[in-house]
C-alpha cells in the first residue's frame, strides 16, 4: 500500500516514513499543503497522513478541499490540538480520524490498521486466490498451508494482485502503487520482481498464479471452472471506495472467461445470429459451385465474405469453425494467382462441408435489431436534472428556493412532514436530501430522520439547512453522516451552489465511443460489453453515414472495422486524419486480418491501436482505457485554461466551428456571447494578480453553473469569456444573460485574507445567421456589442441588431 505524509516538521516526517517503511508500506513525504495537493492529483494513495499546521494551505483546509473534490481515500490528521471544538472541525473537514502529538509507533499503527479495516473496504480481511492465502494483518502468505517467504516488495506486489483479482495491471500502475515518487525505478524492475515472485510461487508448486497479457500487463490467471464458484464466494468484495478501485488502472478489465470470445452469453448469441452466419456460408457455397474459373472480381468478393464469416465465428467463440473460415479465406487468396486449379475447388467444397458439420447444432429462429445512429438525430437539448428532496415546513422559503433552482437545473420535491419524506424516499429516491432539523411536532425530528438515512440510504448525500447553528448541532450532524451543514442565514444561491457541488463531485460525463462495422454480430458483442464499463456506445453499420454520425455524437474514441462495403476502415481513418477538427481522435481497428502487411498499412494511415478478431474481453477493454487515459491527459494539458479551469481558446474555437456547421446543416439557431468583467484591471492594480486570478476562477465557476452542459463556456484570455449556445434563440439567451447580470451583481467574491469583492460584468450577444454567418463575423458583432455595453457604463448587455441597452 502507498501512503502520503504531509508534515512540515522534516525530522518527524522522516521518523514516520521510516516506521511505515519498516511495516512494508510505500511512503511519499511532502512538507506543505500545496505540494500535498499536487501529489494527490498525480499519484494514487491508500491513506493520507496530514499535519493540521502547514504553510500556505493548512491540513484542515487541504482535507476539506480534497473531500469537496470527491476524494474518498482515508485521511488521518496529525495535530497538537485536541479540544472538542477542534475535534468537530476535523470531522467537518472530512477527516476519518485524528492522532494527537506526541504519539507512539504502536498508536500510529493501530489507527492506520483501523482505518484500513473500514467497512467500505473488502469484506474479508483474508485475501484468497484458489489455494493461495494472504493475511494483511499478520502479513503471512501460505499456499495449501505451506508458508511462503517473500521480500517486502514481493509481498506488496502479491497483495496488489489479490486486491485486484479481476484486473489487468499495467507496469506503470504497478510502479505507481509500489514505489515512492523519489525512488521510482523503470519498468524493467517490475518485470524482475514479477519474475522473482513467480519463482517463489513455483517453489511451493503454485506455478500458474500470475499470467502475462502481452502488450498490456499482468493479471491473476482465471480459476478453473470447478473452483470458480468457490473463488467467487471468498474473493474480496469490490467497492468503488476501495484503494483497489482508486488505482490508476482505468485500463484494467474484467478477466475474459473464454479464450477468444467476449460475449457474456455465447450460446444465446450463436443461436440469435444463425441467419447471418448461414447466409454467408451459402453465398460462399454458391460461388464455389457456380464458378467455372475464379476471376479476380469473384475471388475478391468471396474473400470478403469469408473474412466477415471468420470474424463473426471468432467473436461468438466458435474456435474450430473460425479456423475453417480462415482456411476458406486463404484458399480464395490463392485462387487469385491460380484460378484454374480444380484441386482448390475440391478443397473449398470440403471446407464448406466441414463448416456445415461443425455448425450442425440447431438454431432457433430470431430477429436481432442493432441500435444504429439515425441520420435524423440531432444534438440532445435535454440536460439531466438533479432530483432533490426538501424536508422543511417553511413553505415561503422553500417556494423561493424552488423558483431559483430552475436556473440551476435542479428539481426540488418539497415535503413538510417527516412521514411524507419517508414515503417519498421509498417511492422515488432522490439524488440528495435537503433537511431542516426542527419541526413543530418534533423538535429533534430532523436528527431522527438523518439517523434513519444513515442506515437505510448510506450512499445518499444529505445537506442540513437549519436555523439551529450551535456547535453541538454541527457535531451531531457530522457524527450522523451529514455531508454539509448550512445556516438559514445563507442565501438560496449559496444553498443551491452547495447542492450542485456535492452532486457534481460524484457524477462524471460518460466517455463516448463510436463503433463502425457492417457485421451485426460484432456490433452486438460490443453493445453487450462496453456499456457495462460506463462507456456510452453509438453503433453504425453503414459507413456512408459515418461523417454525419461522427459530427453529431462527438465521440472520444473511434472503433473501425477494416473491411466494409462502400468505404473501408482505412479510407475512414484517412478521412478523419485529414480533417483539422478530428485529426487527434483516437482510432482503434478491429479486424480478422493478422498479416504484417495489413497491420503495417493500418498504422501507416493513422491508427492508434489494432486488435485482431476474435478478441479477448480483457484485451479490448484494457486497450480502450489505455488509449482514453493518454488522450485525456494530453487534452487536459492542451485544452484547459490554467487560471479558470474552463476550456481555452483553441479547444473552444474547434467546438464553436462544429456547432456553427450543425446550425447551417440543420437550420438551427446559434448565439455567441462575449462577456467581460467591468473594471477588472483596477482590481488587479489594487489587490494584485493573485487576487485577480482567484476572482477569474470563481467567475468561471459561476458561468459553468449558469449554462447547460452542452453549451461552450471558455476563457479567451485577459478578462474575456465566451459562451456558445447551440439551438438557442437570441431572445432566450438575453433572458439568461439578464439573470447572470443579476447574479454577478449580488455575489460577494471572497478572494484572499478576508478580502471580499463585489463586481459587475458586461456582455455582447450575436446571433446566427442575423449577425454573422461564421465565427469571425459573429465574434466581431458580439465584440462591437460588448464595446457599446462598456461605453454605457457596464453592468448591461447589447445586441448588434439594435444596440438597445439592457441593464439590471
Automatic annotation (TrEMBL):
Gene Ontology molecular functions: phosphorelay response regulator activity; transcription cis-regulatory region binding
Residue ranges of domain Response regulatory in the record: 2-116, 387-503, 512-628
All copies of domain GGDEF, residue ranges: 668-802
SMART domains named among the record's database cross-references: GGDEF (SM00267), REC (SM00448), Trans_reg_C (SM00862)
Phosphoprotein listed as a keyword: yes
Protein name: Transcriptional regulator
4-aspartylphosphate: residues carrying this PTM: 436, 561
Lineage: superkingdom: Bacteria
DNA-binding region: 124-222
Chain ranges of the OmpR/PhoB-type domain: 124-222
Listed GO CC annotations: cytosol; protein-DNA complex
Pfam families membership: GGDEF, Hpt, Response_reg, Trans_reg_C
Keyword list, A-Z: DNA-binding, Phosphoprotein
The keyword DNA-binding appears for this protein: yes
Native source organism of the sequence: Limnoraphis robusta CS-951
NCBIfam families, sorted: GGDEF
Renumbered residue ranges of the record's region Disordered: 225-245
GO biological process: regulation of DNA-templated transcription
Amino acid at each position: 500500500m502507498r501512503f502520503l505524509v504531509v508534515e512540515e516538521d522534516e525530522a518527524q516526517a522522516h521518523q514516520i516514513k521510516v516506521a511505515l517503511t519498516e511495516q512494508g508500506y510505500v511512503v511519499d513525504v511532502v512538507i506543505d499543503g500545496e505540494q500535498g495537493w499536487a501529489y494527490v492529483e498525480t499519484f494514487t494513495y491508500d491513506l493520507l497522513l496530514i499535519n493540521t499546521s502547514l504553510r500556505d494551505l493548512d491540513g484542515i483546509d487541504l482535507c476539506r478541499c480534497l473531500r469537496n473534490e470527491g476524494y474518498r481515500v482515508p485521511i488521518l490528521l496529525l495535530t497538537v490540538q485536541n479540544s472538542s471544538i477542534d475535534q468537530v472541525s476535523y470531522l467537518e473537514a472530512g477527516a476519518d480520524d485524528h492522532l494527537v502529538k506526541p504519539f507512539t509507533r504502536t498508536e500510529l499503527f493501530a489507527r492506520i490498521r483501523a482505518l484500513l479495516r473500514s467497512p467500505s473496504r473488502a469484506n474479508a480481511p483474508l485475501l484468497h486466490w484458489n489455494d493461495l492465502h494472504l493475511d494483511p494483518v499478520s502479513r503471512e502468505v501460505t499456499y495449501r498451508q505451506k508458508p511462503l517467504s517473500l521480500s517486502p516488495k514481493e509481498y506488496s506486489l502479491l497483495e496488489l494482485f489479490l486486491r485486484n483479482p479481476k484486473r489487468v495491471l499495467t507496469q506503470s500502475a504497478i510502479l505507481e502503487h509500489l514505489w515512492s515518487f523519489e525512488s521510482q525505478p523503470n519498468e524493467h524492475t517490475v518485470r524482475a520482481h514479477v519474475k522473482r515472485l513467480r519463482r517463489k510461487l513455483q517453489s511451493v508448486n503454485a506455478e500458474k498464479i500470475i499470467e502475462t497479457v502481452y502488450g498490456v500487463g499482468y493479471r491473476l490467471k482465471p480459476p478453473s471452472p470447478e473452483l470458480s464458484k468457490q473463488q467467487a464466494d471468498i474473493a474480496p468484495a469490490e467497492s468503488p471506495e476501495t484503494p483497489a478501485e482508486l488505482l490508476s488502472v482505468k485500463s484494467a478489465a474484467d478477466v475474459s472467461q473464454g479464450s477468444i470470445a467476449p460475449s457474456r452469453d455465447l450460446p444465446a448469441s450463436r443461436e440469435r445470429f444463425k441467419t447471418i452466419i448461414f447466409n454467408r456460408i451459402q453465398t460462399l457455397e454458391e460461388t464455389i459451385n457456380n464458378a467455372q474459373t475464379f476471376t479476380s472480381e469473384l475471388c475478391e468478393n468471396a474473400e470478403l465474405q469469408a473474412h466477415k464469416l471468420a470474424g463473426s465465428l471468432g467473436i461468438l467463440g466458435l474456435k474450430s469453425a473460425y479456423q475453417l473460415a480462415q482456411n476458406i479465406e486463404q484458399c480464395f487468396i490463392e485462387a487469385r494467382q491460380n484460378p484454374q486449379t480444380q484441386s482448390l475447388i475440391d478443397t473449398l467444397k470440403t471446407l464448406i462441408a466441414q463448416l456445415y458439420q461443425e455448425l450442425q447444432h440447431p438454431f432457433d429462429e430470431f430477429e436481432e435489431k442493432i441500435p444504429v445512429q439515425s441520420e435524423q438525430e440531432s444534438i440532445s437539448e435535454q440536460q439531466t436534472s438533479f432530483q432533490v428532496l426538501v424536508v422543511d415546513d417553511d413553505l415561503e422559503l422553500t417556494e423561493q428556493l424552488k423558483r431559483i433552482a430552475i436556473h440551476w437545473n435542479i428539481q426540488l420535491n418539497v415535503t413538510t412532514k417527516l412521514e411524507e419524506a419517508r414515503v417519498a424516499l421509498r417511492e422515488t429516491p432522490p439524488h440528495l436530501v435537503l433537511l431542516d432539523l426542527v419541526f413543530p411536532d418534533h423538535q429533534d425530528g430532523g436528527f431522527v430522520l438523518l439517523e434513519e438515512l444513515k442506515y437505510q440510504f448510506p450512499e445518499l448525500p444529505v445537506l442540513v439547512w437549519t436555523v439551529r447553528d450551535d456547535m453541538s448541532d454541527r457535531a451531531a450532524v457530522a457524527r450522523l453522516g451529514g455531508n454539509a451543514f448550512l445556516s438559514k442565514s445563507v442565501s438560496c444561491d449559496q444553498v443551491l451552489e452547495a447542492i450542485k457541488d456535492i452532486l457534481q463531485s460524484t457524477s462524471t460525463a460518460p466517455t463516448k465511443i463510436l463503433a463502425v462495422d457492417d457485421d451485426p454480430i460484432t456490433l452486438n458483442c460490443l453493445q453487450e460489453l462496453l456499456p457495462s464499463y460506463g462507456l456510452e456506445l453509438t453503433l453504425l453499420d453503414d459507413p456512408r453515414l459515418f461523417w454525419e454520425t461522427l459530427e453529431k455524437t462527438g465521440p472520444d474514441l473511434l472503433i473501425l472495422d477494416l473491411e466494409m462495403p462502400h468505404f473501408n476502415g482505412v479510407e475512414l481513418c484517412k478521412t478523419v486524419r485529414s480533417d483539422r477538427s478530428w485529426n487527434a481522435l483516437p482510432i482503434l481497428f478491429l479486424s480478422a486480418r493478422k498479416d504484417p502487411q495489413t497491420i503495417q498499412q493500418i498504422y501507416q494511415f493513422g491508427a492508434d491501436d489494432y486488435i485482431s478478431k476474435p478478441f479477448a474481453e480483457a484485451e479490448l477493454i484494457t486497450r480502450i482505457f489505455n488509449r482514453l487515459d493518454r488522450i485525456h491527459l494530453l487534452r487536459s494539458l492542451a485544452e484547459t485554461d490554467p487560471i479558470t479551469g474552463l476550456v481555452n481558446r483553441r479547444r473552444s474555437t474547434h467546438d464553436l466551428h462544429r456547432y456553427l456547421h450543425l446550425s447551417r446543416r440543420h437550420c438551427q439557431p446559434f448565439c455567441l456571447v462575449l462577456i467581460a468583467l467591468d473594471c477588472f484591471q483596477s482590481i488587479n492594480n489594487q489587490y494584485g494578480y493573485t487576487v485577480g486570478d482567484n476572482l477569474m476562477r470563481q467567475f468561471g465557476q459561476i458561468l459553468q453553473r449558469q449554462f447547460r452542459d452542452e453549451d461552450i463556456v471558455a476563457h479567451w484570455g485577459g478578462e474575456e469569456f465566451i459562451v456558445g449556445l447551440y439551438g438557442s434563440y437570441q431572445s432566450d439567451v438575453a433572458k439568461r444573460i439578464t439573470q447572470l447580470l443579476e447574479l454577478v451583481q449580488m455575489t460577494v467574491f471572497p478572494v484572499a485574507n478576508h478580502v471580499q469583492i463585489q463586481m459587475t460584468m458586461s456582455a455582447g450577444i450575436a446571433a446566427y445567421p442575423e449577425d454573422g454567418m461564421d465565427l469571425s463575423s459573429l465574434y466581431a458583432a458580439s465584440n462591437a456589442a460588448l464595446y457599446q455595453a462598456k461605453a454605457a457604463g457596464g453592468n448591461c448587455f447589447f445586441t448588434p441588431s439594435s444596440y438597445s441597452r439592457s441593464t439590471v
